Amino acid sequence: MLDGRAAQLSAELSGLLARIDAACRAAGRAPDAVRLLPVTKFFPASDVAILYRLGRREFGESREQEAAAKVAALREQDLSGIHWHMIGRLQRNKARAVARWAHTVHSVDSERLATALGAGARAALEAGERTEPVRVLLQVSLDDDPTRGGVPAGDLAALAEQVAATPGLSLAGLMAIPPLGVESDAAFARIATLRTLLLTEHPDATELSAGMSEDLESAIEHGSTVVRVGTALMGARPITSA
Ligand SMILES: *Cc1c(COP(=O)(O)O)cnc(C)c1O
User: Mean per-residue pLDDT for 5-16?
Assistant: First the structure.
């Protein structure tokens, strides 16, 4: 018997996977072309453990300290094969800490941040805290508003070159969050175009992190390979993360 929270997460997860599956079929894509990244920020490590037992292995977090505490709590339970994704804005002075636990970072958006994350990754590799380079997704600004995070489209190619050439990092693809006030369909169409361009120079950078609880169907239509879903799986967060 699943207890209350486990039963609830199990039911929400089934519904969400069916929703993703339907979106893939509607877009003419294979059902396994899109992965679910549960976003567990603001929810306890015990929820991550439940989702792990339900078969999930990747988890998204947006704040370094909260994530590091969860990673430490779960390490004692020996959940092997778990991969943590840093999806939130990242300050340079947190890069070393993030490199200790993040398998993938979705929010690299400047050369200075990439340099710091590369140094952090090499230090973590040398210290035996990780065995693989940090997978990096470049967060692209879709409205060129510098206050919201994301590299302006015009600077994307140079940043991709830098990350691809930085020891300790591996360039895996792109990430985007539709700007407020912009129709998500238009935003995802734009990121799809930028991705096509990126792939001509970096054919292995195939990941596209796009789509959340509200707009995952549109993101999947435009080529998303991983959807970052919090609310539609976990329920409403206790406080907003904006
Ligand atoms: C919180 C968060 C999400 C999840 O958003 P929901 O609308 O709750 O699905 C996705 N991406 C990022 C970057 C986030 O910070």
Answer: 98
Claim: this prediction has a pTM higher than 0.85:
yes
Is the per-residue pLDDT at 242 higher than 50?
no
Q: Is 98 in the pocket of ligand 1 (CB under 6 A)?
A: no
In this predicted model, what pLDDT tens digit does every residue of 119-153 receive, in sequence order? 999 999 999 999 999 999 999 998 867 677 899 99
Q: Is residue 240 assigned to a domain?
A: no
For helices 111-126 and 156-164, the axis angle rounded to 10 degrees is 20
pLDDT digits (tens, 9 = 90+) for 22-31: 999 999 999 9
- Report residue 205 CA to chain centroid gap: 14
> Over 70: is that where the pLDDT of 239 sits?
no
CA of 175 to the centre of ligand 1 (A): 12
| Cα gap 38→13, rounded to integer Å | 9
Determine the structural domain holding residue 77 and report its residue range. Answer: 4-234
Do residues 213 and 232 lie in contact, with contact meaning Cβ atoms separated by under 8 Å? Answer: yes
Q: How far is the CA of 212 from the centre of ligand 1 (A)?
A: 6
- Domain count of the chain? 1
The CATH number assigned to the domain holding 170 equals: 3.20.20.10
**Integer CA distances (angstroms), 194 to 9, 175, 228, in order:** 35, 11, 20
Residue 242 lies in a domain: no
In a domain, 224, yes or no: yes
Residue nearest to atom 1 of ligand 1 (CA): 230
In a domain, 149, yes or no: yes
Q: Is the CB of 213 under 6 A from ligand 1?
A: yes
